[in-house]
Structure formats: structure tokens, C-alpha cells
Write a structure and sequence with these properties.
505 residues; alpha/beta; 4-stranded parallel beta sheet; isoleucine biosynthesis
């Protein structure tokens, strides 16, 4: 396939039997702050609150009568599932959707409400996909791939056809596209490069789920061992063959962003539109902001595709906690102060007029105290000035603003010291978030080594995150390593992490 093939398929796509032509929204606040005209292509306003409806409907609307009679099947825990269910309902086609058992009930219910038959299987997308292929062969149904299908990516390419009518400017235009398996960016880039090769296309990925970027760099499809769990809508270990080939030829540039930057972008979109994006839905805006900051772009037209708004409400507390850090408007610090009367007041005086966003401390019988403090910043770049000022006054300061362990776990545990917990090893674990999963995890974890520390907090995603300490005496290292290898849960050694060392040992 080339750009002209994508254009031809997009122009002959059948999407509007289910999808709508979404508007382009202005962003007065974000535009003023970035010094560019920032527009949002609002795919979050589709009937299923995601662009995925376009590709699914286009594929299914072009099935033969025999294929329609046999029905369709897909594997998905997210927006593709709802797109297939919605399209099937519109077309009167039987649909079976295989989802991991970890899928939140709101998504399962949304598919069932549209008449889909939902099969819950396994703990991961890979488990569900393998089961879907088994059922497809057994029942003779048509598999609707979430991205690696010419008709699916061409359906997504209709977004670009609309953009060309909606954004009429003479100057430079750059379009920022979120990337998971590559269906959206392959379709959009193919159409734009066929009709307007002067429009730049920038792909945006999370820095912990960048399969497409790594594949483009390597010149071949790369399979990631693990993917990040926060921006779950684009958490793909390997991109599609069709989508990779198109993307490597037609995408001009790449930006990778972290969790905090995505959370800040969710807040930015909300401030200008009052709409709440899912993490993947704000990914393009996060990349747009980083692109402007790194390249000094001014006075141009920048378009971000807000691709979805299917977010669990309970995830928003985590988003709110991280947004200020992502906007570089909060510093998270560990500061050593003397353990004596008056030390608090002296430290607050050193902070000056800046607002304190968080302050955690617990008394310990020692000469020095560790405090975990959040400080509001007036502008990006002020964090380094704050740290330098405190160090200049004689305080020992550890900057934890970029420390994931500090922000997810330690900030909720300050003061929990246990000098009796000798030989403690601390690990961060990830496990499937479903009813009974925490008990199952603890059952697997329990063994010959005592659990000396444990912190878990539900973040409303498909995966739970646990910080656990286990007492492993000298000489048990080999047995403990074998135990971790057979545990079945991803584990990362955090024993040397500075936040853990400062506040929990």
C-alpha cells in the first residue's frame, strides 16, 4: 500500500452510517500559553466517544452477505470493542467480543448493551486475542482487527479528509496523532501526504509504550517485552505490518511523553473544552506541548487528535495528583531538617511565598528528620531554583519529582519506619486488576519470606500496582530469585530507590 491506496480506500469508505463528522475546537488558553493556534479534532465526541467506530464500521459495512451471516469477532478491552459492538448493532450483524477478565465492568456493560456477546478470558489482551482466534476458526466468523487491516486504517483516515475541509490556513500546519498499533496514524498520514504533503504529521507515544517509534528506528517491527499501563488505549507490544509500512514512510517526526505530561494534557483539554479525556485521548496534546517546548515553534497551526474519552471516573484522582507535576508546576522534594523545636518554621520561611501542596512527616528519635514536601511552582524551570536555594541554606535535598515510586507509593507511607525489618528487599509488582486478584497475588507472594512492607492503591486501571518488602536473609538470594521468576508477576527491585531509603528505612 502507498498513500494513494490509502486515499482511494478512505474516499470510498463507509463510516457515516455510524460515525459522525466531528468538530474542530479552538483552545484559547492553551493557544495563548504556547504561542501557536492549537486546534483539537474532537474524536472523543463520536457516539462511542472514540474514533475506533470509523474503522470498525468501514470494515463491517463491506462484508459480503455470507460473511455478515456468519458474524464478526474481535479481541479488545477498550474502544475497539465498543466500535465493533456499535457497528454490529447498526448493521444487524452478530458480534462476539473477547475481553480479558480484568476489563472494567463499565466497558463490558457498554458492549453488552449494544447487543454484543462478551467472552471474558484470561488476564491480558494476548490471552483474549488467542481465544478470539480459536473461536473465529471454530465458528467461521470474520475477525475485525483493531488496526492492521487496510479497510480499518482507511476508515480512520476519514479523520484526515474532514480535517482538510475544516482547517483552512495558509501557513504551516502540523498534525499530532496518538499511536498504539498504528491504525489511526497510518490512515491519517496516508491521506494527508497524498493530498497535502506540506502538512507535517507527528506521531506521539508514551515513553513506556513506544513500539512504533522503536520499530521505525530499527527499520523493522519490534516486539516490546512490556508496555506501560497508564495510557492503556495505546499499550501495544507490536504494531501492525500494514501500519508500520505506511507510518515509516509518511510520518515526519516523533514525540514520546511520560505519565505526568499526559495527566497535564488531560487538564489542559478540560480547561479549554470542559471535556475529560482518557489518557490516550490526551496523548496528542501532551506531544504537541512537548514538541513546542523542545523546538521553539511559534505562530503556527497545530492540530491534536483527541481520540477518546472512555475513562473510568476513579482514575481521575490519580490524574489530578500528577497533572501539576506534568505541567512543571509542582516540585516533590525530600528534605532533611534538624529534629528540634522551630525547625519546621525555619524551613517554611526558606520556602518563602510559594504554596505548600503536600507535607508529610513523622517523628523519629534521631538528630535529623526527613520531610516529604510538595511545593507549587509559578513557572517551569523554577524547580531547580528552589532546590538550589534550599541547598544554599544548608538543607540536604533529594528531588523526587521524577521518581515514580515516590509519587505512586511513598507519598502515602511517610513515617512507616521499621528498624526491626532486617534484610528487607523491596519490589514493585504489577498484577491484573480484577475481583479477587489482590488476594491471589498475596497468596502467591506468601511463602518462606516474611512480608515486611506492603502498599496497594486502586488507580482504576486494568493493572494494580503494589510495593512490597520481603525479609530475605543472606544466603537466600538464589532461592529468592527463583521464587520471583516463578511468581508470574512483573517485579522490579526498588531496594536502592532514594524515596524508599529516605522515608521507609
Amino acid at each position: 500500500m502507498d498513500a494513494m491506496d490509502v486515499l482511494r480506500l478512505a474516499l470510498t469508505s463507509k463510516v457515516y452510517g455510524a460515525a459522525i463528522e466531528t468538530p474542530v475546537s479552538e483552545t484559547p488558553s492553551l493557544s495563548a500559553r504556547l504561542g501557536n493556534r492549537v486546534l483539537l479534532k474532537r474524536e472523543d465526541l463520536q457516539p462511542i466517544f472514540s474514533f475506533k467506530l470509523r474503522g470498525a464500521y468501514n470494515k463491517m459495512a463491506q462484508l459480503t452477505p455470507e460473511e455478515r451471516a456468519r458474524g464478526v469477532i474481535c479481541a479488545s478491552a477498550g474502544n475497539h470493542a465498543q466500535g465493533v459492538a456499535f457497528a454490529a448493532q447498526k448493521l444487524g450483524v452478530r458480534s462476539v467480543i473477547v475481553m480479558p477478565a480484568t476489563t472494567p465492568e463499565i466497558k463490558v456493560g457498554a458492549c453488552r448493551a449494544r447487543g454484543a456477546e462478551v467472552v471474558l478470558f484470561g488476564d491480558s489482551f494476548s490471552d483474549a486475542e488467542a481465544r478470539a482466534f480459536e473461536l473465529q476458526r471454530e465458528w467461521g466468523m470474520t475477525f475485525v482487527h483493531p488496526y492492521d487491516d487496510p479497510l480499518v486504517l482507511a476508515g480512520q483516515g476519514t479523520v484526515a479528509l474532514e480535517l482538510l475541509r475544516q482547517v483552512e490556513v495558509d501557513g504551516p500546519v502540523t498534525v499530532f496523532v496518538p499511536v498504539g498499533g498504528g491504525g489511526l496514524i497510518a490512515g491519517v498520514a496516508g491521506v494527508l501526504k497524498a493530498l497535502r504533503p506540506d502538512i507535517r504529521v507527528v506521531g506521539v507515544e508514551p515513553d513506556d509504550s513506544d513500539a512504533m517509534f522503536q520499530s521505525v528506528q530499527a527499520g523493522e517491527r519490534v516486539r516490546l517485552d512490556t508496555v506501560g499501563i497508564f495510557v492503556d488505549g495505546v499499550a501495544v507490544k507490536q504494531v501492525g505490518a500494514f501500519t508500520f509500512d505506511l507510518t515509516r514512510r509518511y510520518v515526519d517526526d516523533w514525540v514520546r511523553v511520560n505519565t505526568d505530561e499526559v495527566c497535564a494534557a488531560i487538564k489542559d483539554v478540560f480547561d479549554d473544552t470542559r471535556a475529560v479525556m482518557e489518557p490516550a485521548g490526551a496523548l496528542a496534546v501532551a506531544g504537541l506541548k512537548k514538541y513546542v517546548a523542545e523546538r521553539g515553534v511559534r505562530g503556527e497551526t497545530l492540530v491534536g487528535l483527541t481520540c477518546g474519552a472512555n475513562v473510568n471516573f476513579d482514575r481521575l484522582r490519580h490524574v489530578a495528583e500528577r497533572a501539576e507535576v506534568g505541567e512543571q508546576r509542582e516540585a516533590i522534594l525530600a528534605v532533611t531538617i534538624p529534629e528540634r523545636p522551630g525547625a519546621y518554621r525555619e524551613f517554611i520561611e526558606a520556602i518563602g511565598a510559594r504554596a505548600i501542596t503536600e507535607f508529610n512527616y513523622r517523628f523519629a528519635p534521631r538528630e535529623e528528620a526527613q520531610i516529604f514536601v510538595g511545593v507549587q511552582l509559578a513557572r517551569p524551570g523554577q524547580r531547580a531554583e528552589l532546590v538550589a536555594g534550599l541547598v544554599g541554606l544548608g538543607y540536604a535535598v533529594a528531588d523526587l519529582t521524577e521518581d515514580e515510586l515516590a509519587k505512586v507509593h511513598v507519598r502515602h507511607m511517610v513515617g512507616g519506619r521499621a528498624p526491626e525489618a532486617t534484610d528487607e528487599r523491596v519490589y514493585s509488582f504489577t498484577f491484573p486488576e480484577r475481583p479477587g486478584a489482590l488476594l491471589e497475588f498475596l497468596t502467591h507472594l506468601h511463602g518462606r519470606w516474611n512480608i515486611s512492607l506492603f502498599h496497594y492503591r486502586n488507580h482504576g486501571s486494568a493493572h494494580g500496582r503494589v510495593l512490597a518488602g520481603l525479609q530475605v536473609p543472606a544466603g537466600d538470594e538464589a532461592a529468592f530469585a527463583a521464587f520471583l521468576a516463578g511468581l508470574g508477576y512483573p517485579a522490579v527491585d526498588m531496594t536502592a530507590n532514594p524515596a524508599y531509603r529516605l522515608f521507609l528505612t
